[in-house]
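=== Structure Prediction Worksheet ===
Name of assembly: unnamed complex
Input type: mixed (protein and possibly other molecules)
Chain count: two
Listed entries:
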Amino acid sequence: MTVEAEVPHTSDTASQGEPENYLTHETGLTSWLITVDHKRIGLMYLMSVIFAFAFGGAFALLLRTELATQGQTLMEADTYNQVFTLHGAIMVFLFIIPSIPGALGNFFLPIMLGAKDVAFPKLNLASFWIYVLGSIFAVLAIVLGHVDTGWTFYTPYSVGRNVTGGDQAVLWMTTAVFITGFSSILTGVNFIATVHKMRAPGLHWKRLPLFIWGVYATAVIQVLATPVLAITVLLLFMEKTMSVGIFDPQLGGDPVLFQHFFWFYSHPAVYIMILPGMAVVNELIATFSKRKIFGYMFVAMSSISLALLSFVVWGHHMFTSGMSEYGTMVFSALTFLVAIPSGVKIFNWIATLYEGSVSFESPMLYGLAFLVLFTIGGLTGLFLGVLSVDVYLHDTYFVVAHFHYTMMGGTVMGFLGGLHYWWPKMTGKMYSETLARIAFGFVFVGFNVTFISQFIMGSQGMPRRYYDYLDQFQPFHMTSTGGAYLLGIGFTIMAIMLVKSLRSGEKAPPNPWGSASYEWMTTTPPHPHNFAETPIIERGPYDYHLCSEEELWTGFPEDFKKGSEA
Amino acid sequence: MGHSHGPAYLAHHFETPKQQFESAKLGMWAFLSQEILFFSGLFVAYGIFRTWYPESFSVGSHLLNWKMGAINTAVLLGSSFTAAMAVQSAQKGDKGKTASYLIVTFLCAAGFMVVKYFEYSHKWHVGTLPGQYFGCPGFDCSNGPTLEFAEEMSTAIGNSYENFGANMVPYHLRTFFGIYFIMTGLHGVHVLIGMGLILWMLKRNASNEFSAEFYTPVDLFALYWHLVDLVWIFLFPLLYLID
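=== Predicted Assembly ===
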């Protein structure tokens, strides 16, 4: 890649004065709120999703505290039902789905493409504000109280004729889901057009960073699956306000139809969540192994095939819901197919590590954690895809542990890895590696302690969502709660570390990790138009063997000397 | 950035007008595919409930005015044609013709909504409404069904091939009208949005924004309008003509 008009890496940027960057070239609150710069929108998303994550995390700690001991520990059963619903709904709709695409995707997708912005910058801003509007509705639902349906809003319970009290809050929450869905769709439309049409000269499909492939596959799912959720909650809304008899069995409706509709979106949605996590891990593994990703095209195509497969496996959520036997068999068989592209990714990443020059900076720790945790999450998914085993494990803590291993062990690890990895580029500041590693230790250990005990409980028959439990589960619940506190400590340390970095972090060089990928070839923080001149791409993003020493120079003086001597 | 960047319509982040046009068009197609998935959920629900309760759908279709539906189909098809002509005029840079075709399209859309208004207000008046409001004129269930409702129901049942006998009102008509109103209602919202877009196009056309080189918004609007038309092409027979 030629970086003609860029500040040359070899020169000392300090001596030339500060280059123009996206953080400082405009100032004032409005310059942020109505910005069309994808980088600023990305940062606004980042702040919002971190806020949502803190909120959802607080609910998680509350419910784990309640479950620490038998009987009532902290709250009434009714409150507990609301707390786990809010934990799920906030984490899914307000945190995970917009997390990587909205924050990191928005920021880095155009830079990695060598584009000045996404294809539709105003639409991008609209997506963000639609997401904010949806979040406001979610907050209203919380304030108005009594959303206790679980994040799945299953009928007939959510239709609410059997529930006493202010069940209107379900309407607010589903409206929130409807609105944030449109934010997701518009982001998807934007990214598809951007990846197809905005690539820099020389950046053909086989040179796309795998992050782009992952986010692109995600965008396809966002566009094709989310509208079905929109129509589902619209029908639910009608059912609840007018009793039309579509989902309510008392009126001749079909609650299983609701489940079909819901999972037709929400199964692809778990790929909306996991594919971006995988997308980030590609970048981490390549950069910290200093190697081209093994089997690049297979990894790229595995993202696409996961996106396609995600549309035909939704029935595996409903094996015990009264679907036809033949239906369950087909869905079970299709579900196993998902293991193939997932396995392709995992094995190719391990093959990339093999004989790579692996280093263990904090982003890479999260990348490696992803490999371990997602593999556990993925393999336990196979247990649940087996018809007979699923009847036993359905609606137990085994399922809870499984999806937390994929969603948190997968996506959140990917998100955190990406956050650490790109933090210097986004903010222009380095963070304390020591604190980052300590936080990682707490998060990794805490996570496993929390959820391994849930695997064990689940396999022994502990049902999910229950307020109380038998004596035999007491030690496991206690352990799980202890793990959740460790997680809480880890995230607190991380928050302190990031705030410290913003306040007093050292100035970040353009390429602190010595990566060959395109986004590191611009200044730090990036130029308002990403690159001062449109770059011309002459090599792949992982072609370390084609890079000059200057391109791989971290920007730290000592590293350049070392590189020159080698 | 001070440097010259090509024509005024070229947004700052695109390199060439061609790139801008192709991005916009691809984005629109992606958006339209989500529209199709959006409506498809309703078509699935329609299919399931029609299979389960054929008598309700059979009687229900006789409670709709197929003549009004047919007029609307013709009007909408015509407007799709004029929308396509508007694109062609815009491509030729013929500002006057573009405006006229857009206006005709707008009038057709308005005509469609007027017919829709008469259909809806009749149902409101009689009480052929969704769910718990079925048999409740004006969404007011305190007085019970009117004589008009009974007569209309009796005629529809008499004309229907699938009925359980005279005066046997199928229970799931409430579901049929739920599906009818949500499908035609969402479609109507799309028509209204389309009308708003036409007004916007007219304004931009009047202020000389379009030319033979730049006609993207008109083109994208027409794509959207064809989809709105296409959805109606399916709705009309499935709701009005099934018996």
